[in-house]
Amino acid sequence: MALLAIAADARPYLVPGRRASAVVLPSICFTFAILLAWGGPPALAVQLVAVTVAGVRIRHSLRRTLHLALQHAVALGAAAGVAAAASLRIGTGPGWGDAVLTVAAAAAWIAARYVVAALVRRWTSEGRPGGRPKRHGVHADLLATAALLLLGPVVLVAAHVSPALLPLALLALHAVHRMVRWAGESERAARFDALTGLPNRRALQAAMTERAPDRRRALLLLDLDRFRTVNDALGHGAGDHLLTRVADRLAAAVPAHDLVVRLGGDEFAVLATRVEGPAAARRIAQHLAETLSRPFPMDGTPVELSASIGIALQSGRRDGGTLLREAEAAMYEAKQRGDQIAVHGPDAAHHSPERLALLADLRTALRRDSPDDGIVLFYQPQIAIATGEVIGVEALLRWRHPERGTVGPEELLRVAEPTPVMRLLTNRVLEEVIAQLAAWQKQKKPLRAAVNVSARDLHAGDIADRVAGLLHRYAVPAELLQLEITESALMADPHRVLDTTTRLSRMGVAISLDDFGTGYSSLQHLRRLPLSEVKIDRSFVLGMATDRGDAAIVRSVIGLAEALGLRAVAEGVEDEATWRLLAAAGCHTAQGWFHARPMPAADLAEWLGRYRPVQPRKIDSGFAGKPSNNEGAGWPPSPAKR
Q1: How far is CA 338 from CA 318, 381, 489, in A?
Q2: How far is CA 265 from the centre of its chain?
Q3: Which of 548, 632, 532 minimizes the C-alpha distance to 592?
Q4: pLDDT higher than threshold 50 for residue 628
Q5: Separation between Cα atoms, residue 637 and residue 639, nearest integer Å
Q6: Which CA distances in Å does 16 have to 140, 185, 191, 529?
Q7: What phi and psi values does residue 637 have, to the nearest 5 degrees?
Q8: Which position among 311, 374, 397, 618 has the lowest Cβ density within 10 Å, counted as fewest Cβ atoms?
Q9: Which parts of 445-547 fold into alpha helices (H)?
Q10: Rounded CA gap, 455 and 453, in Å?
Q11: pLDDT, tens digit, 9 for 90 and up, residues 153-194
Q12: pTM of the prediction?
C-alpha cells in the first residue's frame, strides 16, 4: 500500500485554471486505506512522503508543498478521529455499519482539507491587495477526491483477498485521472478563447469580481479599426491569423500581473491591476496603441492596424458588468470623436449622476413590457416640394418621464448611444415603426417612414438581420422603410458602415445621410455608400432666407445631390420664404413646422384627412431677403403650422 501511494503521486492530478493547492493526489486512495486498516500514524507517515514526491514532480515551492502537506495531515487527522471514535477497522469482512462509518470518515477528511485550505488562503492573503480567494467551482476536484477516498476501502478488501489484486487498482486510478483531465479541459474551454488561447469574457468577469475594495484597477477595451478590410482583402483565414498575431503581441506587451482577454470578434480587453489614476491608464493605453501600430507581416504583405481604446477605472466595489459597459461607452466615444483613446469619468457631462439616473430609468422602461412606459413615437410629414404631396414621415422619439416630463430625442440619444441601452431603444423603435407601417398598409394608406439609427447599431452589424426579421413578421415591403445614418457614425468606422448599409440596401431599405454638412466625412462616401437621399441640416435651412452663406450652402448640396442621383431633403423648413427658395433651387423634399409639427400616429391620420397639397408659386431663383406677406396661403389652419 505504501509503495503504491508513493508511486501514484509521481503523477498527481492538476485541474487547469485552479490554484496549485487544488491539486488532487491519487495517493489518498492508499493512505486512506492504510488509516482504515492500521491507524493514523502510519497513514500520516506515508502521506507526507507521497506529498513530497508530488511537490517535486509538479515543481511546487517549499511553501506550497508545506501548505499541501498541512492540508492532508489535518484531513487524515479528522478521518482518524472519526475512525477512532467509532472503533472502525476494516478487516476481511466489513459490514453495512463499516461502510456507513467509512463514508463518515471520508466526509470528515474532505471537510477538514477544504477548511484548512480556505483558512491558509485567507491568512496569507489578508492585507495584500487583490488577495481575495478565488471562488471557482469545485465540482471536478471534489468528485475526484471523494472517488479516490471511497476507492480506498475497496482496494483494502481486495488486498486482503490477494495482494495480486492491488495493481488492478491502478486502472481505476487512471479512470479518475481521465475524469479530472476532461473536467479541466471543459473548464478551460469555457474560460479561454479557442482561436487565440486568451482568456474570454467569462474569465474577465470572474477576474473583475475577485478583488479587494482598496485596489484600483483599469479596464481597457480595444476595438480594432477597419479589421473587416483584412477579411475582405485576404480572406477569413488570414483574418483569424491576424487576430492570433494581435493576441500574441498584446500578451507580450502586458505585464504578467495584468490580464489580456479576447471578448469576441475584433474586440480585446486588458485588465490592468496596478493603476493609480486616469493618467496612468492613458499611458498604458498609449503603450498598447503603439504596440499595435507596428505593421503585421502577412504572407509578405505588411498589414497596418489601429485600435480605438476605451478606459474605465475600477475602484470600490463596483461590479464587473458596470465596468465593462463604461469601457465600451468610452471606446465608442473615442470612435465618434475620431480619437484613439477615451477615458470614462464622472467629470464628463454625459456621465453626470443625472444622466446616469436617466439612463437607468430608460433601461427599466425599455425592459418593462407595458404600454404605459412613456416611450412614444411622433411622426413628422415629409412633403414633395414640386407637387405638395406627402411622400413619407420621419419617426421621432419622445419619452414622457414620470418625474422629468417629456424628454426629447437629443437628450435620449446623448444618454443612450454610448451604452448597450441604445440597442434596446433601436429594437423598440424599429418594431413600433414597422408595426405602424403595417397598420397604414392595411388602411390602404401606405406611407414611407424614416428611422434614425445610431453608430452603435451600424457597428454591431446585425441590424440588417433585425430589420429583415421585422419586415417579414409584419409583412411590410422593404421600400416603405428608410434608415437615416449620421456623418459621425460614418466617420467612426466607414468600412463597417458600408458593409451594413450595403446589406440593407440590397434588401430594398433606403438609406439616408442625415445632418449632411455638419460632419467631417469625405465626399467620396456619397459616391461609395448605397444612399437614396441626403438631408440638409436644419442649421443651414433655417437661415437661408436671410443669410447668403447658408443659401449658397443649401443650393450647393442640392446641386451635388442632383448630380449624384440622390434626393435632397431639407429639414427645418419653418416659413413660406424658405419653402419657395428650396423649390427654386430644385430641392426634392421639405420637412418642418411650416407644414406640420411632429405628431402621434392618431393625430397624423387626422392631419392627413385635412391636408390639401399646394405647389409653390413660380419665383425667380436666387437670394430672397424678406419672407412673403401671404405666408401659408392655401394651407390648413393653425394646427398644421407652427
Answers
A1: 29, 34, 11
A2: 11
A3: 632
A4: no
A5: 6
A6: 11, 7, 11, 49
A7: -65, -170
A8: 618
A9: 455-460, 463-474, 487-492, 494-507, 524-528, 538-541
A10: 7
A11: 888 888 787 777 777 766 777 776 676 666 656 666 667 888
A12: 0.52
